[in-house]
Amino acid sequence: MLSGLQFQAAAPAGSVSPDRTDIACFIGYVARRPGVALPVDVQAALRAAGWLDGPWGRDPATLDALEHTPVVVESFDAFANLFAWDRRPLHADDDAVCSTYLGAAVRSFFADGGRRATVIRVGDPFPYLDGADGRIANRSARLHNLVPAFADIGLPDVPFDPTDPGTWRGIEQLYGLPDVSHVCLPDLPDICAVDPQAPPTAFSPPPPPETFVECSEDEPGLPGDDGLRRLSAPRSDELGFVAWRQTVSLICDFLVTRRRDVLFAGALPLALADAHHAGGDATTHAHVDLIAFLRSVGVLEPAGSLLAGHGSAASAFVQLVWPWLRTSRSDDLPELLESPDGLFAGILARNALVRGTFRSLGGTVLDDVIGLTPLPAMGLGPDSPTEALAERICVVAPEPDGNTLQSDVTSSPDIAWRFGGSSRLMAAILRAARRFGEGHAFEPNGPALWAKLRRRMEAMLAAFWNEGAFGGATANDAYAVVCDRSTMTQNDLDNGRLVAEVSVLPAAAISRITVVLDMTVGEVSAQIREVA
Predict the structure, then answer these.
(1) Ramachandran sector of residue 71 (left: φ over 0; alpha: ψ -120 to 50; beta: rest)
(2) Which end of the chain is more exposed for a tag (fewer CB within 10 A), N or C?
(3) Nearest CA to 356 among 260, 465, 430?
(4) 483: closest CA among 424, 422, 433?
């Protein structure tokens, strides 16, 4: 006897254009939704990628947990069906919950224009209130789970093996995700924060003004009388910023070595000092303090002894966003604030789909942002303390039309790589070069292949030029592709190495940028140099 009949609709398998530059990857802590089987289309995708029946396949029970396994989702509902994004415990010993930062970021990504994302779950979310020294004590292990190169005393430092996907962890999964353009780690500021203080157990809101009202029953409580509103968002002290900067530097190292066509979109952590500033002139002082603080820990520019033995967060592969946002969706997060990286990735995706990835996001009005913490000064200008931040950080600030993204920049110290659109444009060019290398790895390295590469790259660059991506009055001014004996030595030819030189003049760049492409057995590495 049938107890019930259940139908499961499988999403049609659609091909993904290799030229897309809107797909983001989210890596972080979230629980698997209990009692929900893997949908048919997800199982098919995992089987096609080799996770089910391939040489690095896992048994069905292990695979069902989706830990360190890339999962493609094309809507927030598909993500929410698989992951318990809204069930992060506040304490380890009670049932109070808030939403995860990973879930909030994916939610904002789709709400603000994203159409396709890859999610990599690295483990269950840890309680927001860890207890005395809990977050600091577990920081290294949690960062290591996201970025395996972050190794400390007692943590294994396992070299990345590109031939064994079964051993990849966290950000290493990007090596096998050629369609991803941006990567976000929404839990990173939270992991690098100090232990938050629990809200007071007894809270008496200020009484409302006395007015005559009719007697009624079952009236709702006063607005704002809830634990999440009184629970502080994650804030970092100096040591937390140093750990955060180290992690961002390791992310850059991986991208430079393995995925030069991917950019990291990250949220600048809230500074612990900002919690002591509130409105008015104090907000301006908070800006000044933050600029000095970021310089001291090497985020805005290398400085001081704190950088000894550590990397820097200043890179053309990094776009940082600040401040944190109160949105129409963030009422389920501590202090009702969400990190801005998910929303930023969403408008990056929308910009790529609608206008072109090389176009600036500056001036974008964020209609669903209703508050900023801390509150930046309005607009940019020589007297605005926001100006120095906006040179290296994507700053959201109030304008008469609403809260607006004031700048679209990378954190690079080199002004030629400062404009975010230029870095995204170069990533698109590198992606095209990689596809060419992978498709022609076993062809004879000779004039016929060189001519084929020139024609393909010139056709792509001409399309970019026609859309306004490059400066210059003519195509010859805007770009050039050279691939002949002048770009290769006899040693290159003897070893089957194809070397091409692509020179472009991005529309917003101060000088021409030259990329040297070295293609060997399907691999593409790029050595970038600037020429006058």
Answers:
(1) beta
(2) N
(3) 465
(4) 433
Tell me, what DSSP letter sits at residue 405? E
- Alpha-carbon dihedral angle through residues 470, 257, 104, 227, given to the nearest 10 degrees: -130
Both tokens of 64, joined, read: 């069902």
Bridge partners of residue 451, in order along the sequence:
none
Residues 22 and 94: beta-carbon distance below 8 Å:
no
The C-alpha angle 33, 181, 520, rounded to 5 degrees, equals 120
Cis peptide before 323 (omega within 30 of 0): yes
Sign, Cα dihedral of 400, 404, 408, 411: positive
Find the helix or strand (DSSP H, E) in which 524 lies.
strand 523-530
pTM above 0.90, yes or no: no
Sort 265 into a burial class: Cβ within 10 Å, 0-12 / 13-18 / 19+: buried
DSSP 336: G
Q: How many CB atoms neighbour CB 451 within 10 A?
A: 12
* Residues 351 and 342: beta-carbon distance below 8 Å: no
* Inter-CA distances, 128 with 29, 237, 238, 433, Å: 12, 17, 20, 44
List, run by run, the mean pLDDT of 10-residue segments along the chain (532 residues).
50 60 96 93 88 81 90 96 94 84 97 96 91 76 92 68 88 93 96 76 53 55 58 89 91 91 94 56 52 70 40 85 94 94 96 90 92 78 70 89 91 86 89 81 86 90 88 88 90 86 77 57 42 34
Longest dimension (CA), the chain: 93
Burial class (CB in 10 A: 0-12, 13-18, 19+), 374: buried
Give the model's pLDDT for residue 308: 34
**Number of helices and strands in the chain (H, E):** 16, 21
Cα-flanking dihedrals φ and ψ of residue 104, to 5°?
-65, -40
**Is CATH 3.70.10.10 what the domain over 24-200+227-405 is classified as, yes or no?**
no
* Percentages of the chain per state (helix, strand, coil), in multiples of 5: 35, 20, 45
Residue ranges covered by each domain of the chain? 24-200+227-405, 433-530
Q: Residue 396 forms beta bridges with which residues?
A: 405
Which among 248, 227, 241 is positioned nearest to 194, based on CA atoms?
241
Residue 266, helix vs strand vs coil: strand
